[in-house]
Amino acid sequence: MPPPHTTPPATAPNVAIVGATGAVGREMLAILHQRRFTHGTLKLLASSRSAGTVIECCGRHYVIEELTEDSFRGVDLALFSAGGAVSRRYAPLAVKAGATVVDNSSAFRRDDDVPLVVPELNGEALNDFSGGVIANPNCTTMIVLMAVTPLHRAVGVKRMVVSTYQAVSGAGAAWMNELEQQARDFAAGRPYTTDVTGRQCLFNVFSHNSPIGPDGYNEEETKLRRETRKIWNDQSVKITATCVRVPVLRAHCASINLTIAKPTSGEEAKRILEQAPGVRVVDDRQANRFPEPIDATGVDDVLVGRIREDTSQPPGMGLELFVAGDQLRKGAALNAIQIADLLL
């Protein structure tokens, strides 16, 4: 989809949030307020089922409008978080109407002419951007790469093995609501409600709820591999992953094993990460305090800890990390608004 040439508006941009009633859409709205993002008009768009609904955020009330082909007249910046099908249909219409689109779905991530951006890591990808669509990476990719990219730049990552522990927030607000309902069901001694998730999530761990390809990897695992290579502009790095859901409301975690090119101690790796933007080192061995999803919830930084050498590899050639990051913030809504900040 070749973008028309556009330039940032001279005045505060008119903003639309597509998918405003979802978990990420609501987080986008909250972050706009928290960061005092200067904007003109603000449209909150969703399906016809939600049109007319009033939602409250930061002490204000907003009326949801129905998403239509004409929704983007006068819009300068459209933040999409309503799924791939909606993005594929409506993002080109928004661009045609003159808006810049920041899309949180996977619809355009693999397109060569669409930048895949994490501002702290590859904001320079927008240097030659002249309008159209910018893609947010997958939430897991972002949370992992916030910790790994500074190490990759400093010492070179040759291979990365990732095991994730992903909160139900990654599957949307309905999954979050049902996990809470299952907790109430347990407390009341009732059968678990599984209308949305199709299974017991409470007290359970299961393979990520994305389709599994012919190679045996689910889409989440494949996205991590493909998107890392695009963000790093490096097709040679070896990456494998196992992604699972855990009974956590929000904030994803990941265990990361690295094979590196330059001998590096755990202490050296810790010093590199302590200087990385958007990263907070939580690594207190004496108190056994390391990143936990409950501590990452509502936090902009990605928490990194359990920083140590992998003793199964040649001395200094392997590192181990554990990370926790809020999927709804840095993994989605916050990154989109940081991209908008960078553009404007």
Question: How are the SSEs placed, and which strands pair?
Answer:
Elements lengths: L14 E4 L4 H12 L7 E5 L7 E4 L2 E4 L1 E2 L10 E4 L3 H13 L3 E4 L15 H4 L10 E3 L3 H17 L1 E10 L6 H16 L17 E2 L11 H14 L5 E8 L6 E9 L5 H9 L4 E3 L11 H4 L5 E8 L8 E8 L3 H15 L1
Parallel strand pairs: 1-2, 1-6, 2-5, 6-7, 7-8, 9-11, 13-14
Antiparallel strand pairs: 3-4, 9-12, 10-11, 12-15, 14-15
Structure in words:
With 344 residues, this protein is α/β, with parallel strands linked by helices. It folds into two domains: 15-108, Rossmann fold (3-Layer(aba) Sandwich), CATH 3.40.50; 141-327, Dihydrodipicolinate Reductase, domain 2 (2-Layer Sandwich). The protein is 30% helix and 23% strand. The protein contains nine helices and 15 strands. It has helices at 23-34, 84-96, 119-122, 139-155, 173-188, 219-232, 266-274, 293-296, 329-343; strands at residues 15-18, 42-46, 54-57, 60-63, 65-66, 77-80, 100-103, 133-135, 157-166, 206-207, 238-245, 252-260, 279-281, 302-309, 318-325. A seven-stranded mixed sheet has the order 10-11-9-12-15-14-13. It is globular. It starts with 14 loop residues before the first strand and ends with a helix. Mean pLDDT is 94; it is low at 1-8.
Structural domains: how many: 2
Number of strands: 15
Any idea what the CATH architecture of the largest domain is? 2-Layer Sandwich
Low-confidence stretches: 1-8
Oligomer: single chain
CATH topology value of the largest domain: Dihydrodipicolinate Reductase, domain 2
Kindly provide the name of the CATH class of the largest domain: Alpha Beta
The first-to-last residue Cα distance is 23 Å
The topology string of helices and strands comes to EHEEEEEHEHEHEHEHEEHEHEEH
| Beta strand % | 15-25%
Largest sheet: 7 strands, mixed
**Spatial shape:** globular
